[in-house]
Amino acid sequence: MKPLGVDNQSFFRGGGNAGCRDRSGPAHPWLTGLVTRARQDRVLGLLVREGDWVTASTLADALGVTPRSIRSYVTAVNARVAGGVAIESGPQGYRAGPEAAAALRVEADAGTPRDRLHTVVRALLDAPEGIDVFDTAEALHVSPATLDADLARVRGLLGGTELTLERSASRARLRGTEGAQRRLLSKLAHDEMDAKSFDLSALRRTLGEGSVGARAFGPFKTELVARLGDLGWFVNEFGIADVVMHIAIAADRVAQDRPLDTAEPVGAGERPTQTQVAEIIADLSERHLGVRLGSADLQHLSTLVLTRVVAPDRGVAASTLPGLDPETEAVVRDVVTAAADEFLVDIAHDDFIARLALHVQNLLHRAREQAWSRNPLTRSLKSTYPMIFEVAVFIASRLQQRLGIPLPDDEIAYIAMHVGGRLERSRRADQLLTATIVCPGYYDLHELLRSSVDRSLGQAIEVVGVETRVDPDWASIDTDLVLTTIEPVTPADRIVRIQPFLTDADVERVQAAAGRIRRSRRLARLRAELERYFEPSAFVRGVGGDEEDVIRGLGALLRERGVIDETYIERTIERERLSSTAFTDALAVPHALEMTASRTAIAIGIADPSMPWGDGRVQVVALVAFSETDREAFQTVFEQFVEVFSERDSVQRIVRRGTDFNAFLDELVAVIDG
After folding, report:
1. Of 33, 229, 398, 457, which residue is most buried, by most CB within 10 angstroms?
2. Is residue 217 domain-shared with residue 288, that is, in the same domain?
3. Report field, pTM of the whole predicted structure over 0.85
């Protein structure tokens, strides 16, 4: 019997120990070191991000391994910092210790698969005539069979790089353009840095110990940013690391007499500013790095700077932005207008459209070069601002359709930063909480207090009244907050006692009370919405398989009830392929971009233990089907639902106790009510 229209073995976890088996052991021994190191780093990264105690079982769920494996990872991480503690252990589990950051920076042991792989690739890139397999194996102290396995991994890295690995008897050789070889170096460097901020030591591991050092590159980067600023550009510090990496690669290759292939001379058919940027890079490279770059390298690097790390000063009028293509602007205007209508957000402004169009124009160039920009804020943007990220995904989807450019998560995150910036600037004053000050009259004391409150808390609250009586009518004060210098008749959460002369402690208490009120209101709205939209018969405990299996399984439950059709399910899968809907470490919210359901409904799937989803693992999958009539509820449900499941303790409570729909809803409501 297959009631969900999918293979039960893929959607439901099997009985017995299925799903509890430790899947940490890779099939091939030569991958063991690579996988184990990555999992050790992930445990440490989770603890650093959490900042508090986390149980072994919670960490095991997050990684899809057993608690016993977690203990071994903790031991290995602590061994990296002799005499220090990277991960503390205690009755409550584990937490990041004082040496956590140092442990993350410790290089992998020489001779691990990744280290050896990079050594082999570097040797191939440095030897135009190729390498001798037996000599290289001997130099690396491994068998020829092990090196053959490494060469097979090299072939796996070459997909989409326009490079090929040729093997003739004992000689192996890379074939391809210099540009393609540099892209391979860039890929290795990204693997070393693993989405962290720019790490020169990791780059030197990729390029070789004889490459550019920190002493030269620190001043280079500082002066590059300063001189770009002198030209009137804002510098994107999130993207500068990527450009600096490419400049380091170019300097290293040119120093080995491996310049880029012949290209147009600098100055032909360019924007006026490109020549200026090329001149800056040429000057800095010669002075700081001791390398004279040719015209092809300068053209390439100046283009990278202009398409990745600079934006015009906000004082520049949108209509005068340099090099803005009218056709691209028209496409972006259509897409932004559609997003504003779809999500009811205030982003359809000329200035926003023009600057986003310039960004998209640069995106087109990066897409042609397959040279995407990394964004270290991608994960936090997705989990903290899911609604903003969703608007960005919608924009990216429409741009992909209109312009034919695939956009990875990091590029979507840059669009989300544009959207978030626009929405932050257009927030209405009525989003502030109102407050009344109670301060019995004594000279101008109440006026001084009001002035202090406005100065210290003006961005969080708006004072709309001041009571100077010693016996105010407390019941008649209906503002969100009451800030009082005297004891109230009846204490309440919205009443905050402060001193006549505002102190830092007073400010913190008021901010905390304001935060509690905002949260309680958001979650109260969420509770009301969820009780309307949950579909009791669309609750499944024990989901498994891949993302599409789960989406089709939960979607079938809603389809059987006439909420959605098969087209909605397919569009939900298409949305998932654009960008993972795992918005937290525990929750995925798959949905279609279009709100075409007959009514709004939510199907819930529980995975215990956790299941893979995107680049992470989740324990709760909420397939949300929205109808157009509930468009305004989208933001409430989407953002606040994600907020509830961003708290690890709450997730574990809901997952462990939510054995059926009623128990799940009871636990969710209990968490919401605090």
Report:
1. 457
2. yes
3. no
